[in-house]
Amino acid sequence: MRTRRAPSLLALGAATALALAACASGGSTAGPSGSSGSGPADGTPTATASSAPPSSASPSTSPTAGGDDDGVEPTASPLPADDPTDDQPFPADLAPDLQEAGGDARLGLTGIRVGLGEGYERVVLDLEGTGQPGWDAQYRTTGPAQEGSGDPVEVDGDAVLWVTVTGLAYPGDGVTDVTAAPRTDPEGTEVVEEVVYDGVFEGQAQVWIGLDEQRPFRVFRLEDPARVVIDVVGTDG
């Protein structure tokens, strides 16, 4: 902001002295009362106020989260460039969501986290290795079952979202020895009741997300580090 200062008394006094000297050197006397003049009657110079140009306020910008944030730690995160609809926080539906793995993917699933967003709940699958993961996420009419054996798997919730993650390698097979916990019980959620991980089988892993009911969802991936993110529309979405 530019601050304007009032004229100093010294400058005002100097201007007055110059005006008196000019009158004395001219030897003229004041005219009759009927004479008119354009200046003020007391001969004091009048300061002309100049208006300062309007200041243009620079727009305030909000800091954006970097590419390695996913909305769980911390909560705020960059999401794909989608416009929300009137009744939910992002475009989502009940249809299957499929994406192929890429870049000769060899990844290990090292962790599972659950967080809250505005109008949705988020499950993050942390990965380590090379390439880009793929997935097949959908609701199925059959209950969860282990790959290979077909044994049933118990998952809390009235609905189960199946997420098959592809592009994986066995733990310790040149990728990582760290593996995610088999069961994750989130705190403070209303939609996600449990997440169950069944390990790697033939380059893919089954992850079951137990929900209170079938809800619209979307899946996308983030990089550096690699993650698969599942957003499920919440109770206030």
From TrEMBL:
InterPro entries: AMIN-like. Residues 24-66 have a biased composition (Low complexity). Residues 1-30 form the signal peptide. It holds the Pfam family AMIN-like. Residues 109-232 form the AMIN-like domain. Residues 24-102 are annotated as: Disordered. Keywords: Signal. This is AMIN-like domain-containing protein.
